[in-house]
Batch of 2 targets.
Target 1
Amino acid sequence: EDKVVQSPLSLVVHEGDTVTLNCSYEVTNFRSLLWYKQEKKAPTFLFMLTSSGIEKKSGRLSSILDKKELFSILNITATQTGDSAIYLCAGYNTDKLIFGTGTRLQVFP
Amino acid sequence: NAGVMQNPRHLVRRRGQEARLRCSPMKGHSHVYWYRQLPEEGLKFMVYLQKENIIDESGMPKERFSAEFPKEGPSILRIQQVVRGDSAAYFCASSPRRGSYEQYFGPGTRLTVT
């Protein structure tokens, strides 16, 4: 059965800290790994990773995929209170996204 | 360019009633996906539809749940005889073609069964 596991489940940090969110996956017909940010509404797209070892960056966020170890990480540097959200990781197989349960990040001033 | 639209945003039903959730995909998108998010859980795939076709319904409960995406009009997720365990957020996503990694999500419908 397809499975995506995220850790930690919850993270509480202070502004300015750096955080690393983890995602491991077992997805049949795996095509890519996607990261979303969810703030009490629709998930918003962050990254899509298809190739191993190539880091994708967007401002203070970056992510990388390891297809050998079936693993991805999402890094957020210099965290801000606006980064508080649930971060979802999803494996894409032929036709659907398989989501993990998410990591709830809380950033306090 | 309007995004994915879902209505209603909030729906309250008593046990035994029917719930109808609507999803209008982004303009130019003909592929729709429904996901359910139970409290404190991630999104779970339910069904994937193309216009007038169900492509993959492997995540749909066997009873009471059905989905359609007619040639004209929105996609509809229908839940008959709702139970408390159906209370969840139901998200719809759309994509322009099969095999597209990009799925754009709507704001969701929060269903509460009393």
Target 2
Amino acid sequence: GESVGLHLPTLSVQEGDNSIINCAYSNSASDYFIWYKQESGKGPQFIIDIRSNMDKRQGQRVTVLLNKTVKHLSLQIAATQPGDSAVYFCAEKYNQGGKLIFGQGTELSVKP
Amino acid sequence: DAGVIQSPRHEVTEMGQEVTLRCKPISGHNSLFWYRQTMMRGLELLIYFNNNVPIDDSGMPEDRFSAKMPNASFSTLKIQPSEPRDSAVYFCASSPTQNYGYTFGSGTRLTVV
């Protein structure tokens, strides 16, 4: 039969609003986390990272929150702009020298 | 810095043919990664190298896939023979050490017909 692709979670927001994208990671031993942004036809682009000894880190218009108790990561984008429309991936690394494991992604759509 | 450079950007080939994808990592980066992205499976790590040495190739689908890194500035991913199910976007990424985020290339979109 015909294969079915992944149905990415979708978040639709109005331009100017704040966006929150959530991610549940898999391994309680993970010690490094990254958010990536992927626009159509391009490779994933690094946004912000956080290590497990922190619970919050801020960048320009973006904030990452880490809750190790429930293995949850979130990305907050302030004053969302049309250029923020993309698929956002969280990634985790869970041993020294280990590989990054990516989540399935969330599609963010910003309405002007 | 030109970033991670991949070639070709697009490749269309017939089933059974050999395909070679190429990657030039960022100068000075010691780690190199090959990922495959499909709608069905998302982003999957195929193999990664540290200091030109393959560390983990557990993600390589089968023996038809092979990867090499003959020097610090070049890596190849080869599929021989190619099959339609290999159609995907293949990304190369590099990192200065094992403990930082990766910089991805623009990818190679492979179509096997």
